[in-house]
Amino acid sequence: MTRTTFRFRVHGERLAIARLDRAAEIPAWARGGFVNIARTVDELSIVCAQVHVPRDVVQERDKIAFGIEGTVPMTTVGILASLCSALAEANVPVFAISTYDTDWLLVSADRFEAARAALSGLGHVVAGDPPRA
Length: 133
Description:
Blueprint lengths: L6 E4 L4 E6 L15 E4 L4 E6 L8 E11 L10 H11 L5 E4 L4 E6 L3 H9 L4 E3 L6
Parallel strand pairs: 1-8
Antiparallel strand pairs: 1-5, 2-4, 2-5, 3-4, 5-7, 6-7
Helix pairs in contact: 1-2
């Protein structure tokens, strides 16, 4: 079985993962070059540039996103499992976001180099440096 290797690109903004009440309106501050909005029966989660998120909002800050370049077919099996396993072995918590085309991994800025090393150990390339705070 051959292993697929990927090239990851690093997003250029520090991100925050915010949690709002499930009935909240989508706020105007949910903006930037990377925005992900997910509403479930329990919550409204927003990932966006942390510079826009008010300090009084429940949030995790200083996240760095890196995504697989290109399109990953939805029929592909085991990609996230493989990536998340490598990060778990390196003691790197991950917040994963899947889009129509690809997958994004968000890690804390202080664990970025450990994440890069873990993925490089699988033969992947993480292109780019983390954005400054």
